[in-house]
Amino acid sequence: MSVKSEIFSVIETVAREQKRALPPLADDLTLEASGLDSLCLAIIVARLEDKLGVDPFSGDNEVTFPVTIGDFVALYDHAAK
Predict the structure, then answer these.
(1) pLDDT > 90? residue 79
(2) In the predicted model, what is the mean pLDDT of residues 40-59?
């Protein structure tokens, strides 16, 4: 499964568990418009660390928080390499 597919799967699962209405996921969808709150995003990041073995938000590298779903996926794509 690709990194993007894994991320979309985790996002959809967390949204369902947290009873959040989730619009169709697309690269240009902003995280703000996604319906996910900070708790959802924290859960997503923790689960992705378990699944992918990376957390792009930890460590010494300064990371700009992603604005869109596409930015979020790119951040994980880059960290996974």
Answers:
(1) no
(2) 92
Cα 32 from chain centre: 12
Determine whether 73 is exposed, middle or buried from the number of CB atoms within 10 Å of its CB (0-12, 13-18, 19+). Answer: buried
Separation of alpha carbons 49 and 29, rounded Å: 22
* Contact present, 15 and 40 (Cβ < 8 Å): yes
Q: Which amino acid is at 69?
A: I
Read off the tokens for 34.
């996604």
| Interval 19-38: pLDDT, tens | 999 999 999 999 999 999 99
DSSP helix/strand/coil, 68: strand
User: Rounded to an integer, what distance in angstroms lies between the CA atom of residue 36 and that of residue 68?
Assistant: 12
DSSP SS3 for 30: strand
